């Protein structure tokens, strides 16, 4: 398995162990993780700390060149907010663990020139399937259903 997707999965597991939603992400620049994060809406009482947002935030302020030469790895298909952030910063490639439990704005990303790769990773699917089955109210709160 890709070591960067594995790092995103570890972030997702960390979020789950903290009582949160198991979605993780890492931002990679020149073959190195510069930001990692996980969904911390529950832990921080936040409206916006999805895994991708947390990873980008934890990368700190970067130049446009860094973002434009980075890859974002995420365990779950990015929602509209996270996709907008990917577009805002010009991140050219996104690697997604799975999109069967939730389909985000992949078509929007592709339409704007972002390379999108879906790994169909079984660990990512299992994390979300198990979580949604036992925490449907929390999951529905997060995705607005």
Instruction: List the total number of helices.
Output: 8
For the secondary structure, the number of strands is 5
Please outline the major beta sheet: 5 strands, mixed
Straight-line N-to-C gap? 33 Å
Uncertain spans? none
Q: What string, H for helix and E for strand, traces the elements in order?
A: HEEHHHEHEHEHH
Principal-axis shape: globular
Residues in helix, %: 40-55%
| Category by helix and strand content | alpha/beta
Q: What strand order characterises the main sheet?
A: 2-1-3-4-5
Proportion in β-strands: 15-25%
In angstroms, what is the radius of gyration? Answer: 14 Å
The residue-averaged pLDDT reads: 95
Describe the structure.
- There is one protein chain.
- With 145 residues, this protein is of the alpha/beta class.
- 47% of the residues lie in helices and 21% in strands.
- It has helices at residues 3-17, 41-44, 51-58, 64-67, 80-89, 106-111, 122-134, 136-143, and strands at 24-29, 32-38, 70-76, 93-98, 115-118.
- It has a 5-stranded mixed beta sheet with strand order 2-1-3-4-5.
- Helix 7 (122-134) packs across helix 8 (136-143).
Would you kindly provide a brief summary of this structure?
This protein has 145 residues and is of the alpha/beta class. The protein has helices spanning 3-17, 41-44, 51-58, 64-67, 80-89, 106-111, 122-134, 136-143, and strands spanning 24-29, 32-38, 70-76, 93-98, 115-118.
SSE arrangement:
Blueprint: H1 3-17, E1 24-29, E2 32-38, H2 41-44, H3 51-58, H4 64-67, E3 70-76, H5 80-89, E4 93-98, H6 106-111, E5 115-118, H7 122-134, H8 136-143
Parallel strand pairs: 3-4, 4-5
Antiparallel strand pairs: 1-2, 1-3
Helix pairs in contact: 7-8
């Amino acid at each position: 398995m890709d070591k960067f997707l594995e790092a995103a999965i570890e972030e997702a597991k960390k979020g789950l162990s903290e009582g949160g939603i198991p979605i993780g992400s890492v931002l990679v620049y020149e073959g190195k993780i510069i930001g990692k994060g996980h969904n911390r809406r529950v832990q921080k009482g936040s409206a916006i700390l999805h895994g991708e947002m947390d990873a980008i935030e934890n990368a700190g302020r970067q130049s446009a060149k860094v973002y434009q030469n980075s890859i974002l790895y995420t365990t779950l298909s990015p929602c509209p907010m996270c996709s907008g952030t990917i577009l805002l910063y010009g991140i050219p490639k996104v690697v997604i663990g799975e999109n069967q439990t939730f389909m985000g704005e992949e078509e929007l990303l592709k339409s704007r020139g972002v390379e999108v790769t879906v790994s169909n990773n079984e660990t990512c699917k299992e994390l979300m399937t198990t979580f949604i089955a036992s925490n449907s109210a929390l999951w529905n709160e997060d995705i607005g259903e």
